[in-house]
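Predict fold of Glycosyltransferase; 411 aa.
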Amino acid sequence: MKVWIVNPYGSLPGEAWREYRSSMLAEAFARAGHEVTWWLSNFEHRSKKFRSEGYSEQRLDTGVNVRIVPTTPYSSHVSVARIRSERTFARNLAQRVQANPQDKADMIVLAEPSIFYGKYIVETARSIGAKLVADIIDIWPEVFAMILPKPLRAFDRVLLAPLYLRRAAILRACDGIVGVSEDYRDIGVRSAPAVPSAVSYWGVDVAAMRAAMANENGGVLRKLGLGDKKPGEVWVIYAGTLGAGYDMESILKAARSERLRGKPVKFLFAGDGPQRPLLESACAEPGGNVVYLGRLDPDDLNLMYKYCDIGLSTYLAHSTVSMPIKFYDYLAAGVATVNSLEREIQRLIASHQLGRQYVPGDADSLAAAIEALAGDRALLDTCKANSASLAPRFDQYLQHDAFVRFAETLR
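Predicted 3D structure, encoded as tokens:
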């Protein structure tokens, strides 16, 4: 097949971010012998910088053709300017297809959420006779309910009804629906119960990560200015966005709590975002057990996991996340998880004994969960071993090859 992956967001090789869903998916289709084109924006979401001037194309080593579509910039994640950017991207894509009628796809994979631009892609798929598959990576408008004033959140389905209807219309226009978790797939099924569906987790390259960790001999510790890990010490890591929804205050309060005072527990943070000043202030306190490593290269972060015992999945209440990407890293590294989320990750942690659950926003609950693991080495080792055993189920190649097989049944 000729397959188009349509997603304005993502990272190209060399852009210093971890491999993105669209990239892994495009590579999986190419491995299966399909001709793949990835359409993405010329405005890079994370850095807020343009990756090219106007339209351009490049061919990746995987054989995937990348078409970089011009759009408009924005400075805030939540803004009218971002909506305008998405719509401009989609309009420019549609116009380019219309101007080249001989250039057609057999299948289009549309990254969802696409509530602000998906109709252009639906129309494009219909105009060229392509099958359309929605890939539910995140769930809008559910996430918008989190930014509503608290008294209004109970009415989010009414207030955001036009956006829910728009998403449902896009999903019903698809020939297939894939979710990056069971929960996300279920959302798609509720909107379009007659459309075939599947699950394809984000995953991680388990073999590559473990090979890198096996060859690590302290180099990353020296590079980051960390001393050797002391015998009996437990390292707890948070890696990811330092945003408003990630319960940083609870982690810092737990680190200073009476439960963990005097115990050999060290907290490591890797990432960047609005709460960075909060971490830097905490790290400046003398005699503290908190270390901020900055925004790490993905390869260095993978190596750091070799020395970690507990990974944090710390989200505030009402988060819409189901299976955070960092969780796959924790599994591959054989790290226990302390988690606040509900949904699929909570079920997996409980059923496979992968770590402990805590109440979101409750620092004492978080400290108690860490204390339970750090104070019981046998329990901690069991959770780490269980994580390592479960990891191959979420290998990125296994998961994205499953996506391709599902898509092939829709031809």
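The chain has a mean pLDDT of 94.
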